[in-house]
Amino acid sequence: MICKKCKQNKDMCTEFYKSETCKTGFRATCKKCHNKKSIENQKNNLERLKKITDWQKTNRDRKNASARKYSASVKGRARKMYHAIVWRTTHISSYKNILCNVEISEFLNWAIPEIELFLKENSGKTPSVDRMNPDGNYEIGNIRIIDLGENIIRSRYLEKHLGLSVESSYFEKIEGLQKIVNAFCENLNLPKMKLIEE
Ligand SMILES: [Zn+2]
Questions:
Q1: pLDDT for 198
Q2: Distance 40 CA to ligand 1 centre (A)
Q3: Which of 53, 72, 130, 170 stands the most exposed, by the fewest C-beta atoms within 10 Å?
Q4: Containing domain of residue 135, as a range?
Q5: What is the DSSP code (8-state) at residue 131?
Q6: How many angstroms does the Cα of residue 4 sit away from the middle of ligand 1?
Q7: Does residue 79 share a domain with residue 60?
Q8: In this structure, is residue 1 part of a structural domain?
Q9: 150, 112 in Cβ contact below 8 A?
């Protein structure tokens, strides 16, 4: 029988695979040609599969990058701030008398231009929400965007427990940090660390 592919005349019974669907009872291409074709198909399938997984991977990377970009974007930051405020005012005991008196849409309308301005004027610093009257609620009129570092130093905790404020001297601030470090060291059973010579 002549192979349809290589056109060689070969013995039907030994050189061709049986096939129930073919009229002759054998495939039209010889075993050698058939095997070659099978390997090619397999290779093509593998390549196709690789292309698909590569595409999925690129797509996933792109999605992750866009999610990261969004969360670093001003709108993403503002949304994060809002959710942090909601969480704080509902979960932290020292905030139990403080309300989040602003809807998310109202907050975003206020915060987005404020954060944009802050970033323009304070490159490299991290914007955070500060309540001007620390006993007041989170509401338009009592909130402003300030540097996170400044916000921390202004916090009640530092003022109440360490007597520190933004106006404190450099030495007082370092001393305050020393107390915090020592408290942590004690809790963690670490030797005390010295930030300054006493
Ligand atoms: Zn052949």
A1: 55
A2: 15
A3: 170
A4: 73-147
A5: E
A6: 7
A7: no
A8: no
A9: no
State in Å: Cα 87 to ligand 1 middle.
73
Instruction: Please give the DSSP secondary-structure letter assigned to residue 1.
Output: -
Ligand 1 geometric centre to CA of 120 (Å): 73
Determine the distance separating the centroid of ligand 1 and the alpha carbon of 3, expressed in angstroms: 5
Tens digit of each residue's pLDDT (9 = 90 or more) over 22-77? 888 999 999 999 999 999 999 999 999 999 889 988 888 888 887 777 667 899 88
Percent of the chain at pLDDT exceeding 90: 48
pLDDT at residue 149 greater than cutoff 60: yes
Task: Say whether pLDDT at 118 is over 90.
Answer: yes
Q: Pick from 68, 84, 111: which residue ends a domain?
A: 68
Tell me: do 128 and 82 sit in the same domain: yes
- How far, in Å, is the centroid of ligand 1 from the Cα of 81? 71
Q: How many CA atoms lie within 13 A of 39 on its CB side?
A: 5
* Å from CA of 15 to ligand 1 middle: 9
Quote the ligand 1 centre to 24 CA distance (angstroms): 16
| 47 located within any domain | yes
Give distance in angstroms: CA of 49 to centre of ligand 1: 28
The amino acid at 94: S
Give a yes or no: residue 4 inside a domain: no
Domain membership flag for residue 9 = no
Counted domains in the chain: 3
Please say which residue of 147, 170, 186 terminates a domain: 147
CA of 12 to the centre of ligand 1 (A): 11
Distance CA 34, CA 141 (A): 80
Predicted pLDDT at 187: 74
Write the DSSP symbol of residue 178.
Answer: H
Same structural domain, 81 and 58: no
